[in-house]
Amino acid sequence: MRALISGSSGLIGTALRFGLIERGHDVVRLVRREPVAAGEVRWDPAAGVLDPEDVSGFDAVINLNGVSIGERRWTDGRKKAIRTSRIDATRLLAEALAATDERPGVLVSASAIGVYGDRGAEELDESSPIGPRDEFLVDVVVDWEAATEPAAAAGIRVVHARNGIVLARDGGILPRMALPFRLGAGGRIGDGSQWMSWIHIDDVVSAFLHLIDASFVSGPVNVTSPDAVTNALFTRTLGAALRRPTFLPVPRLALDALYGRELVDALLYASTRVRPGVLERSGFSFAHPKLDGALRVTLGR
User: What is the CATH number of the domain that holds 70?
Assistant: First the structure.
């Protein structure tokens, strides 16, 4: 298989690129600089530049473009970057794929469970309605998914991989969460009742490969473990894996000072309890379905 990947240097992109190569597939990367090696194609999402001929003849395209939503506070400039790096880049890629003569069989485009919004303990699957558009992440994800429409209209099978919290050793949220625990200062956030829908990075890679192969699957797919947990249980499980106490809650004032209230409300206090309904029904098998095992594998315990 020939696969084209955007966002190949990110957490998921790096793991998926190596996963494809290990399975013998030919991988080409979309890069925003001048290509320096074989297997690279230049594009410029900010300027709207991508030659359709450069994306012709691939079997599968994986779109993972987008700046991190959780690394820094949401200033107006950062929120604009979060939107444009996803929506504009996705639309540019979808339009180029639609315009080429040799279109791919599938476009797997990254999305997020943030589309459901803050829903308390309500169990959600792909048939659940989206959250209110006045929530920033809901609004971003709805437009992000809609940006693939040119590809779908051209007859390309489009899958929206709605990723949950990705657990990985060397990137994502887990190393940042683990640090205060290692120092003996880890604890729940608020009362700990908010639900966290997570997935191990190995299962993310396997899920994307499964979605490429599963020709009967299209539309939204929740890429999460079947074992969503509350923040309180996540905290206790992480503390046990690191053999550290988890008695004290994290001070809200400290979180607001570091990241800003809007980000903290949306990412740390919001509750999203998601089931991977489509993955389960399509026969996908999770390597790390339970949180305790996933954390211990990731943390080398």
Answer: 3.40.50.720
